[in-house]
């Protein structure tokens, strides 16, 4: 059976992924180093080959069409894996380090900030091992970034920042949410494998009386976020997932409050405390990047 990947040029898929991630042809063109017209042509070419429209063309930008959300999420994950594979193929030495991190944090937040680390530390090569497995640092992994309670045996865990959650939705839906009670009258997008629930946000808001409505269910937080961007409902998200779409105006926060869950981001290294110079440089940079982006900062209701 012919490989379906051979049907679509890789250049077209790169353009589709960049537009899905960044929201506009211009932003995707800057990311890829080409013109917006070239990006548009590649997106159209991919849509023609696949026989479906991947985006809704709106004045504010390119919004993934509802049925295409899963396709685009898989594309993002695939290109994150390709980037990690290329990095892993690089020569290793004293100034090479491998970071184990969850795929969502890698593809939605970390990988787009790594150029800043490379600019500050050009002699250090970083390999990203994007995996959901609970990997321990050792011979092949220098450090891990995990989300949880921090009580893992056999390793050293340094708290990086609390996991902060808040509701998001498309801007045109946000205007319909003037009070917490309105959450019962709009679709609520839920991730079936989330490590937190609406009670973790409604409790600090003092509104445990509110029962959020029903809505789409997805097993992947990235799909949930894409569904929120496309206007399918309200999603209770976490900062590292939603930071960039919020900054680009593709999402809105209908309520002011941001609240911490019992979980946090942790930097995990070997239990004996042995950390090489490149690893310490990455940890220091990651802490500064989290702090500079305001990740982990809570906000009271208002």
TrEMBL record:
<comment type="similarity">
    <text>Belongs to the LysR transcriptional regulatory family.</text>
</comment>
<dbReference type="InterPro" id="IPR000847">
    <property type="entry name" value="LysR_HTH_N"/>
</dbReference>
<dbReference type="InterPro" id="IPR036388">
    <property type="entry name" value="WH-like_DNA-bd_sf"/>
</dbReference>
<feature type="domain" description="HTH lysR-type">
    <location>
        <begin position="8"/>
        <end position="65"/>
    </location>
</feature>
<protein>
    <submittedName>
        <fullName>Putative transcriptional regulator protein, LysR family</fullName>
    </submittedName>
</protein>
<keyword id="KW-0805">Transcription regulation</keyword>
<dbReference type="InterPro" id="IPR036390">
    <property type="entry name" value="WH_DNA-bd_sf"/>
</dbReference>
<dbReference type="InterPro" id="IPR005119">
    <property type="entry name" value="LysR_subst-bd"/>
</dbReference>
<keyword id="KW-0238">DNA-binding</keyword>
<dbReference type="GO" id="GO:0043565">
    <property type="term" value="F:sequence-specific DNA binding"/>
</dbReference>
<dbReference type="GO" id="GO:0006351">
    <property type="term" value="P:DNA-templated transcription"/>
</dbReference>
<dbReference type="GO" id="GO:0003700">
    <property type="term" value="F:DNA-binding transcription factor activity"/>
</dbReference>
<keyword id="KW-0804">Transcription</keyword>
<dbReference type="InterPro" id="IPR058163">
    <property type="entry name" value="LysR-type_TF_proteobact-type"/>
</dbReference>
<dbReference type="Pfam" id="PF00126">
    <property type="entry name" value="HTH_1"/>
</dbReference>
<dbReference type="Pfam" id="PF03466">
    <property type="entry name" value="LysR_substrate"/>
</dbReference>
């Amino acid at each position: 059976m012919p490989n379906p990947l051979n049907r679509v040029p890789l250049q077209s898929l790169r353009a589709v992924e960049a537009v899905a991630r960044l929201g506009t042809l211009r932003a995707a063109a800057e990311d890829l180093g080409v013109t917006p017209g070239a990006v548009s042509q590649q997106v159209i070419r991919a849509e023609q080959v696949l026989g479906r429209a991947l985006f809704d063309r709106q004045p504010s930008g390119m919004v993934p069409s509802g049925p295409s959300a899963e396709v685009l999420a898989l594309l993002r994950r695939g290109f994150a894996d390709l980037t990690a594979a290329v990095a892993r193929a690089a020569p290793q030495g004293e100034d090479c380090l491998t970071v184990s991190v969850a795929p969502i944090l890698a593809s939605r937040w970390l990988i787009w900030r790594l150029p800043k680390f490379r600019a500050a530390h050009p002699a250090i090569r970083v390999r990203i091992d994007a995996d959901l497995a609970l990997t321990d640092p050792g011979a092949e992994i220098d450090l891990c970034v995990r989300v949880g309670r921090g009580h893992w045996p056999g390793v050293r865990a340094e708290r990086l920042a609390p996991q902060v959650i808040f509701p998001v939705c498309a801007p045109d839906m946000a205007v319909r949410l003037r009070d917490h009670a309105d959450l019962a009258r709009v679709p609520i997008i839920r991730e079936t494998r989330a490590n937190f629930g609406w009670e973790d946000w409604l409790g600090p808001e003092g509104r445990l009386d509110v029962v959020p409505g029903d809505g789409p269910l997805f097993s992947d937080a990235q799909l949930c976020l894409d569904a929120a961007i496309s206007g399918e409902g309200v999603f209770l998200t976490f900062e590292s997932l939603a930071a960039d779409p919020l900054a680009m105006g593709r999402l809105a926060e209908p309520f002011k409050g941001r609240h911490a869950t019992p979980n946090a981001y942790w930097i995990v290294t070997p239990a004996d405390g042995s950390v090489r110079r490149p690893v310490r440089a990455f940890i220091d940079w990651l802490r500064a990047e989290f702090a500079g982006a305001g990740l982990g900062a809570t906000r009271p209701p208002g």
